[in-house]
Amino acid sequence: MAACGGNSSGCWVSPEVYKHHEQRKVCISRPKYREGRAAKAVKVYTINLESHYLMVQGVPAIGVMTELIQLCALYGAVEEYRPLDEYPAEEFTEVYLVKFQKLTSARAAKRHMDEKSFYGGVLHVCYVPEYESVEDTRLKLLDRRRYIMRTARNKARQREDKDGGTEEPLTSNTATTSEKIISQQDQRLHNYNIEDSSNSNHYSDFPLLPLPPYEHHYLVHKNQHGTMHTEDKMGTLYNAIIDTKQRPAQKSSSDREKSREHRPTPNQASAVRFIPRNTHLENRKRKMEDTVDHTCTELSGKNDHLIGPKLPEPPKLDMEDDSLNTTAMLIRNTMKQVGSVPDVKPVEKKMKPRRRI
Amino acid sequence: MWKGSSEGSDRFEYLQTLVTEFQDTDSEEAKEQVLANLANFAYDPKNMEYLRELQVPDLFLDMLTEENENFVEFGMGGLCNLSMDPECRDIILQSSGISLVTNRLSSQREETVLSAITTLMNLSTPSSRSEITDPALLQCMLRFSLSESPRLRNLAAVFLQDCCTREQVAQAEQQMQGQQTAIGIPLPKDN
After folding, report:
1. Which residues contact B53 (CB under 8 A, 6 or more apart)?
2. Are residues A106 and A194 in the same domain?
3. Cβ of residue A312 closer than 8 Å to a chain B Cβ
4. What range defines the domain where residue A328 resides?
5. What is the CATH number for A44?
6. How far is A63 from chain B (nearest CA, A)?
7. Do A156 and A281 lie in a common domain?
8. Does position A163 have pLDDT exceeding 60, yes or no?
């Protein structure tokens, strides 16, 4: 951990440099079908990595803070900002911390500002969730969960509608029924939005700026905002998706709906080609048994097992020979077993090997 | 990355291709890439239905017992993303997800641990509550809440405040004092 000494957390503790601030190496070995428009690193985004807080590195030290914040404000309301003077910066550049009012704004700003040139420098923008307070983190998670719930509910209703529709023969009138569904959906979404804005009206009085035109690229699909009202809250991106993607995909998805009804057809089954679940389960069970075998010496009793970080294991020596390694491992395991016995309350299982020795 | 329906390639089919590649390839690197792809697709609720159908929740769960730390991190990230969805959450719960995720709280990677905590919060339902508030788990969160890492500290604090009662926390604290101190045990590294 990149930790400073002691527990002294104060304003003059110099900000720490975390691994996730670094720009990862882009991946160049992807096959064509998985290649995106922009080169990306192999990385998984979760809500934990995202934040209302962004750090902007590489700002030329020529007194352009106002311009930078103006640029940020294009993507949404900026709640706070300050230069991070102590943060290690490249020569003649500055680092800034910017807090957006909304996560969607931070997301848009990151997407559009990262790796863009700015007064002769190239900006590096990253999320800095470590500046969040507990409350910030809680709200972030809550917002996300609420948004997913809302989408799931919408999806469920849409499915219900569609199931109602597929009772009729799915031929020429598919297009018209799906049109109807979409308009109903829009209506509902509209209602949702009204509900939501009354719930969180402390945001709604802020005049929203339109986002600059976006490019389609990897990971962008989750927050494509084209219009003013979609920028407002996380939930509304669903709207944007309906407008762009849902319509052309409607027919094929209803077709699939039909084929799913009489699953498993041989066609479908061969197409999915998923290793049956029970083999995985077997595998997992085996692995878990293995690990239990290894760790049972550490676990005493039943109830007071320790969850979480364990003491580091001693570094494994490599004898540069398979046979020697195996021998070393056997000796090590035996020593571990012997060493652990006095600490453990007498359990039959563990007594046995001792007797043998 | 996403070519869109304009080229006629359906999202479901695309995801299916990814899953198939994941299973067919022998290259660890390709597996990591595909796994990261799938985990990122799990961020978008639009894909939940397809991912469920392709049994991706189970695929992610299987990754938690892998030795490759990248597999674990990406799988856990995928679960963190998926478990926000109620239906995926139920699938994960049915596949004994809680214990699999809990086991990975001991990971050395901070990102994995953070994803695990968030996943556990997402998995908290009235019927799973007792498992989520297991004293040993709360003690682990109490230790995390003392971490030097602000992200870990914050997330553990949210867990302790939102997923269990004050009495449960107090009880776990008391039990911790009875035991040997856990302060010396290292917390995840940010690597």
Report:
1. A260, B12
2. no
3. yes
4. 277-300+316-356
5. 3.30.70.330
6. 31
7. no
8. yes
**pLDDT average, residue stretch A194-206:** 42
Residue from A18, A46, A149, A293 whose CB has the most chain B CBs within 10 Å, to mutate:
A46
**pLDDT for res A259:** 44
Q: Edge-to-edge strand order for the sheet containing A78-83?
A: A78-83, A93-100, A53-60, A124-127
The rounded distance, in Å, linking the Cα atoms of A256 and A181 is 17
List pLDDT tens digits, range A4-24: 333 444 445 566 777 777 777
Q: What is the pLDDT of residues A223-235, one digit of tens each?
A: 444 444 444 444 4
A143 and A200 share one domain: yes
A32: which chain B residues are within 8 Å (Cβ-Cβ)? none
CA distance A313 to A301: 21
CB A229 within 8 A of CB A214: no
Is A145 in the same domain as A128? no
Topology (CATH level 3) of domain B8-133: Leucine-rich Repeat Variant (1.25.10)
pLDDT in tens, B5-41: 433 358 899 999 999 999 999 999 999 999 999 999 9
Q: Do B1 and A130 touch (CB under 8 A)?
A: no
| Rounded-to-integer distance, Cα A49 and Cα A163, Å | 38
Q: Look up the ipTM and state it.
A: 0.87
Task: Tell me how far apart the alpha carbons of residues A84 and A56 are, in angstroms, rounded to a whole number.
Answer: 9
Which residues have CB under 8 Å from B24's CB, separation 6+? none
Residues B48 and B42 sit within 8 Å (Cβ to Cβ): yes
Copy the structure tokens of residue A116.
């863009």
Residue B153: what pLDDT?
A: 93
Of A238, A220, A54, nearest to A146 (Cα)? A238
Domain assignments of chain B as residue spans, ordered by start: 8-133
Judged by CB atoms closer than 8 Å, whether chains meet at B136 and A144 is answered as no
Cβ-based contacts of B102 with chain A (< 8 Å)? 307
Beta bridge partners of A125: A56
State the pLDDT at residue A28.
67
Q: What pLDDT digit, counting tens, does each position of A111-143 carry?
A: 999 999 999 999 999 999 999 999 999 999 999
How much is the average pLDDT of B83-94? Answer: 94
**A94 SS3 class:** strand
Rounded to the nearest 10 degrees, the angle between the axes of helix B150-162 and helix A134-166 is 60
Residues in contact with A329: Cβ distance below 8 Å, sequence separation at least 6, in sequence order = none
